[in-house]
Amino acid sequence: MLKDWKLHIIVLFFVLIGEVIGVKQFNLGVGTIALFPMLYVLLMGGIVSFPKLKLMNEVQMKRAAGILGISFLLFVAKLGSMLGPSLPKIFEAGVSLAVQEVGHVLGTIIIGLPIALLIGMKREAIGATFSIDREPNLAIISEKYGADSPEGRGALGVYICGTVFGAIYLAILAGFLGSLGIFHPISLAMGAGVGSGSMMAAASGALAVTFPNDAEDIALFAAAANLISTILGTYLCVFFSLPVTARLYEWLEPKIGRTRKEEAK
């Protein structure tokens, strides 16, 4: 820890800045975009780790990756402690909320994995497509393969893209689907609960603007769906989606993957 004092000070400084800035919301007309402190910290971390700035060396970055894995394990332990007290809410939400989690998982595998292989991704595709790659999913990949593995880099890449662009994308998509008038607002609210607080806030905010009379129910069902995606989705990823994605990768990569050398392990 004493050897990495610079790393710890930088992390503490970024956390303090993120907390001071807090959550910022912007109204885009079709919905509300919410920016959370984690986004600011991610951007600042990306800047200081840029090689040309020479603020951090490769050794420090590798040590940070190791600390990241430990942090994710603590986060998953916290999620596990949430499962028991949350069971009554899950049962009250009904079967439909549990079924919607299947779409969150299978959609990324069935659609995302072939596309990732076609554009040239190798084992990064496993981490990038076995889920929507939020915090619990990063912890799963870090524990299984390591944070600095190809699978870990694929998961982290999707996580960053989701953090930066996910809220904007879901706010626009939710507002558009709501304006079509062919989906029930509660169904759209359940679809908004993908397991990410920022994405759920953006999508449910857009739906609340589109369906002002159902604003309270939209917030309730979106939160319930988000809870299920966060808790049950974690176990679903561990026991189903990650093993299935890894097996499909071994089968599909020789058939449709673009040829390039595997990265040195």
Describe this structure as you would to a colleague:
With 265 residues, the protein is mainly α. The protein contains ten helices and two strands. α3 crosses α6 (135-144), α8 (185-192) packs antiparallel against α9 (197-210) and α8 packs across α10. It is globular and about 55 Å long. Mean pLDDT is 78; it is low at 261-265.
Helix and strand arrangement:
Layout: H1 5-21, E1 24-27, E2 32-35, H2 37-48, H3 58-93, H4 95-118, H5 124-129, H6 135-144, H7 150-180, H8 185-192, H9 197-210, H10 215-256
Antiparallel strand pairs: 1-2
According to DSSP, the number of beta strands is: 2
Q: Rg to the nearest angstrom?
A: 19 Å
How many helices in DSSP terms? 10
**Residues in helix, %:** over 70%
Compressed to H and E, one letter per element, the order equals HEEHHHHHHHHH
Overall form: globular
Class based on secondary structure composition and strand pairing: mainly alpha
Q: Report the biggest beta sheet as strand number plus sense, adding barrel if it closes.
A: 2 strands, antiparallel
DSSP strand (E) fraction? under 5%
Strand order of the largest sheet: 1-2
Termini gap: 27 Å
Mean pLDDT: 78
Poorly predicted runs of 5 or more residues: 261-265
